[in-house]
Structures are given as structure tokens and as C-alpha cells.
Amino acid sequence: MTDIAIDQKLQEQYDQLTPRERLLADFILDHPQDLALFNTAELARMCGVSKATVSRLFKRLGFSSFREGRAMARRLRQQGVPVAAAGTSPVAFDQHLQQEQLNLQQLFQTLNPAQVDTLVSALGQARRILIIGFRNSYPVALHLRQQLVQVRADVKLAPQPGQSIGEELVDLGAEDLVVLVGFRRRPRGFDALLSQLQRAAVAVALIADGALRERATLADWFLECPIDSRSAFDSYAAPMCLVTLLVNRLLHQSLESGRERISRISHQYAALDELSLAGTHSD
User: ∠227-230-236 over CA atoms, to 5°?
Assistant: First the structure.
């Protein structure tokens, strides 16, 4: 049974529910993202029903107990399943801002400055860099590549659209660096990829959410980014902030060569007339 199935079961059986069960069902349908947060007593108290009513409703839905239903809700939320509350009202602006601020605070509280500095040095010294990101992680990987290539050469992105990953790994060696971006929901082969990179003795920086904390020992660097949200979809503000932090520190670590490369890239933009600069100059 999936978290969506809980919603569907409640809607299908709503007419057969007792008045007390309907109070509970209404709360779950309106706050599906909160189901994983409460125990039986808390949920019963919030809905004004008995603990027996909570247990009875979840058994009606096919669970052995409320605990089983809550465990499934937690598991699916950790996997990144988008769960939206009923109705059309979005998350309030102040709630959204508070969650974004909390994510950023948690990011910087967990960052180890010494670890960041060694990773930045590796980003500058590696013979070549391969950045890997699947699914939701791909835009973060793409942004990191686009920023790094402004500062240094030999930065590749994988997988390429419609392509596999194996051929991108075959030439990697001890002088190279892989930045593996791994936010939920990860593809099935993700753990195998991380293990393969370790066996190949390639330096790996893992940028991921807390669910991969136990796998962090397979990487040389682990940078944990919270992506929690008050709404159905995860937030990637913290990962994008981390990208900016890493590349800015790399630029200032090799400021003269970085500026020179940025200047040469800008000349290429101009020669190809690639960018519109309208509205960027003031009188």
C-alpha cells in the first residue's frame, strides 16, 4: 500500500465511516504530510477522538495498526514522494521562508570549514572532474558544472541525455575527482555506482540529503544538504547555495588564473554574439 493509496482508501470508504472516524479522516486528507509526525495519542487528541478510533480506522484501511500506516508515510516521505494537502491553498509565504531559512541554517551548521577547504583544493587540483546527477539531482549537477567550467577546464557532466554511465567512468583514475549529487528519489543503481567508484580508487565528493549519511564512508567528502519543504515538493535552495559557496571559494583560491579564464570566456561570448546584454548598462 502506498501513501496515495491511504488517501484513495479514505475517499473510497468515507461514506461508510462513523462520524468520529470522519473527523480523523478529514484531518488526514487535509494534512497528509503531517501523518508521519504524530503518534496515536497525539493524533487522537488533535482530532478529538479516542485512540481506539484511530486504530479502528487504520485497520479498516488495511494496516495492522496505526504504527504501520505511519511508518509507511515516513518511509515514502523520506523517499521524496510528493504529498500535497487537500484544497487549493498553497503554503503561506512566511512558512515557506521559515523552512528555507531553517534548511540553510542546518546546512551551514553541519559544514566543516576544513572539509570544505580540502574539497575546494581538490576541485582546483584534479586532472579532470566528472559531475554525476540523476533525476532531481541533475539540475544541481548541471549548475555546478556550469559554474566550475567558468573557473577551470576539464569539467564534464553525466549522464548525458539518453546515455548510460559506464563509458564515463572507464578512464577515471586517482588524479580525477567525481562529484556525485544524490538527492531523493535516487535510481536503483545509485548505491552500486558509489561502491564502484570506491573500488576504482577515484576521489568522490558526495552531495546528498541526510538519508545517505550511512553511505558517507564510501566517499572522501560528504556534504549534507537538507531539502525539506512545508509543501509536497522538496526544496533545492540549500544545494544551490552550496554550489555557489564551493565555486566562489575555488575562484578566490586561484583568483588570477580564474579571472583570466573568465575573461577569455567573455571574449568568446562576444565573438559569437551569444548573450544579450540589453538592460545591463546604465546611462
Answer: 25
3-state secondary structure of 183: coil
Going along the chain from its start, the domains and CATH numbers come out as: 3-78 (1.10.10.10), 94-272 (3.40.50.10490)
Closest-CA residue to 178 (of 231, 119, 233, 227): 119
pTM: 0.67
* CA proximity to 238, closest of 103, 144, 102: 103
Taking only the tens place, the pLDDT of each residue in 137-168 is 999 999 999 999 988 999 999 998 878 888 88
Task: Report d(CA 99, CA 166) in Å as an integer.
Answer: 38
User: Bridge partners of 64?
Assistant: none
Alpha-carbon distance values, 136 to 72, 141, 227 (Å): 22, 9, 11
Residues 177-218 pLDDT 10s: 999 999 987 888 888 899 989 888 899 999 998 888 888 889
Among candidates 61, 62, 65, which has minimal Cα distance to 52? Answer: 65
Distance, in Å, from the CA atom of 35 to the CA atom of 3, rounded to the nearest integer, reads 10
